[in-house]
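WARN  no MSA supplied for this record, continuing single-sequence
INFO  ligand: adenosine monophosphate
INFO  echoing inputs
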Amino acid sequence: MNNDNTSKTGLIEDEKHWQSQAQLVNWFTNPTQTLSTNNIGWYDWFADGELNTSYLALDYHIEQGRGEQTALIYDSPVTGNKLTFSYLELKEQVAKFADVLRAQDVSKGDRVLIYMPMIPQAAIAMLACARLGAVHSVVFGGFAANELAVRIDDAKPKAVVSASCGIEISKVIPYKPLLDQAIDIASHKPSNCIIYQRPELEASLVAGRDHNWQDLFDVAVEIPPVPVKSTDPLYILYTSGTTGKPKGVVRDNGGHAVAMLYSMKNVYGMETGDTFWAASDVGWVVGHSYIVYAPLMAGCSTILYEGKPIKTPDAGAFWRVCAEYKVNALFSAPTAFRAIAKEDPDGKLIKDYDLSHLKRLYLAGERLDPATYYWLQEKTNLPVIDHWWQTETGWAIASTPLSKETGEYQPLPTKAGSAGFPVKGFNVEILDAQGKQVAAGQQGTVAIKLPMPPGCLATIYNDVDRFQSGYLNAYPGYYVTGDGGFIDDDGYLFIMGRTDDVINVAGHRLSTGEMEEVLAEHSAVAECAVVGIHCELKGQVPLGLVVIKNGIEASDEALAKELKQKIRDDIGAIASLKDLLIIERLPKTRSGKILRKTLRQMIDGQQIDIPSTIDDPEVIKELSAKFKQDKLTPA
Ligand code: COA
Ligand code: AMP
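INFO  complex generated
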């Protein structure tokens, strides 16, 4: 790894900036170091500081006299339940659940896997791990048993915290059988599972291994926060890479705390006592940072919403929640607003609610398409801010700066299709294949010049080599984001999409490489490719293209159905692989590499780049005819 630039321009100034931001954190031991390099050649922030993230999110506010203020609001249109927790009440729940974990032999540094729907117990379990210095790894509820098993084997959790079921629009999803199946598949066997029983569907418990959350909680006592080092891990969050094995992004405690506090004020314009709503899921990074940690650390009220933007019960659901809890800033994915705009194109339902407290809308997870940007601006009359970030960074790399000249936070003018400007600490550059910066307006690889600011990934769990080869080796001195884009003449950054085998489906990050691995395991499949294609609602959806082995008797239709089910069973419903074509052959180079980019261009109706190394150009004609016949290509 090349650290040459640590001594170059800007760094001293940046260090001073973060040093002063760190003073806003109530450390147990104040750091004397700001930025240093560690034994893997990466950066540590505030290495000799000591703190506890659960203390900062809860106890600290009680000490400041905010104990009675609402900390967490749970709103669940799918069950009809609504609950609020003051800082005092949430601290009691967290401190007792930390004791529950401790009684199951969980201590500092141990991993705890959390597989939960959007219920307060998910946030309580996360904060309880943080209180003990244990490392949580939350797995999104939409993932299937196999995905869970892969994460269990990588993180090797001492305990698992789960619930009997999740509730989707009109169905109850039993979580416990998925967990049981995952533990069967995994080589690592967690010794304790703590199950929160929901009345909608109770789960049966395995004697000796499983415990009822409530039984353990009833005999627990509140325990104090355990001091941890700034660089000790707070959590591991698995995210899709280009292969079947997800990457365990490791987040530290100290840098994270500084970044969370900084972003609440400077990216979102939130002050203590404000209400912030990230309509996402605790299984994603947005949920970690902006449902749980940042709003609580900043002394805001946060909302945990167990519902959808539409159909729970209608496209007015988001506006209802904003009005009911006087939400000051709302953050969600463009796909959620596309769904709302589709059901309520004239925004009639918006008018049913008092949105006078709502100041700004924030969008991320995928590029905010101009049509949705204009729709939101016109219908809500609010600033609409697209901001770009990743699981790896944990907070926004680019957004629109706010100023507070008139007593009210005001964003700079935004531009449709742009994610704004690099946020303080992120030195974003657009590079060509040789690693040279390109001119304004030219597309290239979006890279961040090292060092990155506090809060970004510390490493990939169990895999330093992958951390270095996946992000750092391509352009020495830079972190490669995996996104392509450009900066225009006015300095606005446009993120145009992934340059690797990762796709964003409804704001959810998925690996096409992983889907290919799942399809290729089927005995009838000779070879296959999965590419992301444009979808009006979800932004992108995967399309499977499969070549079947000779001599297979089953019909194409039956095989396609079986393969789609296999993706659902092995990865989860969230993969949304609804289109799968059986084809004669795939376009390849002479060395056998599948031309995925060419396939994507054909399906999206773009100009096709056919590489000179293509094995047989005829295959392009064959496939064009097939895509036309199956109405996959634009007319
Ligand atoms: N647990 C179990 N299953 C889940 C799940 C969860 N937490 N979340 C989604 N699923 C299932 C859904 O039930 C659905 O299953 P189905 O194919 O059997 O119907 C499948 O996964 C796909 O779900 P989803 O992508 O949510 O599609 P949808 O058609 O049900 O809903 C939207 C469409 C637009 C309403 C929905 O995608 C949405 O709310 N998007 C916003 C996403 C978001 O907030 N992203 C956060 C990033 S910041
Ligand atoms: P995740 O790690 O799940 O948060 O996904 C990160 C990826 O989502 C990024 O690398 C981008 O490809 C995409 N993404 C997130 N926010 C935006 C945005 N505002 N504009 C464009 N792409 C985005």
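Residues 71 and 301 are 5 Å apart (CA to CA).
INFO  checksum written, moving to next record
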